[in-house]
Specification:
The protein is an alpha/beta fold. It is built from eight helices and 13 strands. The strands form two sheets. Strands 7-8-9-6-10-11-12-13 form an eight-stranded mixed β-sheet. Strands 2-1-3-4-5 form a five-stranded parallel β-sheet, sandwiched between helices. The chain starts with a strand and ends with a helix.
């Protein structure tokens, strides 16, 4: 029987308790909200922190928790505790490396959950996608506040960058990034281009100049285009009606003399698998512990995302020091 402690609000604790209720060999001992003012000193006191750590085998860190100190997580790992973290975290490369070093020494599981990569829409799309050559990401976002560009990049693009890296499965050759100031002194649109060692390209457009509510990814591969609409939870595939011809997608308006040269295409809506992604991740977390398996989202994935976000920020701030 593995004792489980949830670090999060009352609402998130209730959700996790409900999901864990029918899982074997799991006993929820309770929850603690690190963001509650009554608990501020609790995690600042080493003795009290250790008392909490000793009571659990598994710890689940909710997405809304902001006050947990990374040293607390290091202590958990040192004492052989397994951790599931809801969402990617904006940690420094130094802290990520330190956590990974400790995790390897203790042979514990530190797993990230509730990201785009585990959503039913993405899981379904990955069944069809083969060797993408071009990926286009479009996402609406409010403008970053002055002095918070680094945090803004990570909070808005970490999961998308993680997904793109998994799709491309290749090292990065170069990154270019340029903000556009359309309505004032704050950047309204950020254009990013990432070139990979396998010659594939990712183009990202992020900001309030994008239509509000937009959150989509287009994936181009030979003879097929996939469109993932995260707002509508829809997946579509576009291809030629005649499978013997290579896919051609005309972007510019067609002239009358040219229109007959374009082969007709057909777009098909793909059914998205239905499953509770968060409950599935909890089951995988427990299975990874019992069978000593590597999670789908690890500190190494976070390190890749963190490095790319830092690279993008440096590119922008080098030329535009006001952001």
């Amino acid at each position: 029987m593995k004792d489980t402690i949830i670090l999060g609000s009352n609402k998130s604790a209730e959700e996790y308790i409900s999901m864990l209720s029918d899982m074997k060999n799991i006993r929820v001992k309770g929850y603690i909200d690190p963001d509650d003012s009554l608990n501020y000193n609790m995690f600042g006191d080493f003795i009290k922190t250790m008392e909490i750590i000793e009571q659990g085998d598994l710890f689940i860190l909710g997405n809304q928790v902001h006050s947990i100190d990374i040293d607390v997580l290091k202590h958990m790992i040192r004492f052989g505790k397994h951790i599931l973290i809801d969402g990617l975290r904006n940690w420094s490369s130094y802290d990520i490396n330190e956590l990974e070093k400790l995790r390897r020494e203790s042979q514990t599981v530190l797993q990230f959950g509730n990201t785009l990569n585990g959503k039913p829409l993405v899981t379904t799309a990955f069944q069809y996608i083969r060797k993408p050559r071009l990926v286009k990401v479009e996402k609406y976002s409010t403008a970053p506040k002055p002095g918070q560009f680094d945090q803004w990049i990570f909070s808005q693009l970490a999961e998308e960058i993680d997904l793109v890296c998994r799709l491309m499965n290749s090292g990065i050759r170069s990154i270019s990034a340029r903000p556009m100031f359309l309505f004032g002194k704050d950047p309204d649109l950020l254009n990013i281009q990432i070139e990979f060692d396998n010659d594939a390209i990712c183009q990202i457009a992020l900001g309030r100049a994008i239509e509000e509510g937009t959150h989509s990814i287009q994936i181009f591969q030979q003879e097929k285009l996939f469109h993932l609409d995260f707002t509508q939870n829809q997946l579509s595939e576009t291809k030629n009606q005649d499978p013997s011809h290579q896919l051609m997608l005309e972007i510019e308006p067609l002239s009358p003399e040219k229109s007959t040269d374009i082969l007709p295409t057909v777009t098909v809506e793909k059914p998205v698998m239905h499953f509770d992604s968060r409950k599935m991740e909890l089951k995988n977390f427990i299975e990874n512990i019992e069978k000593r398996l590597t999670p789908l989202s690890t500190l190494e994935h976070l390190k890749d995302v963190s490095d790319i976000c830092e690279w993008i920020s440096e590119k922008v701030k080098r030329r535009y020091q006001s952001v």
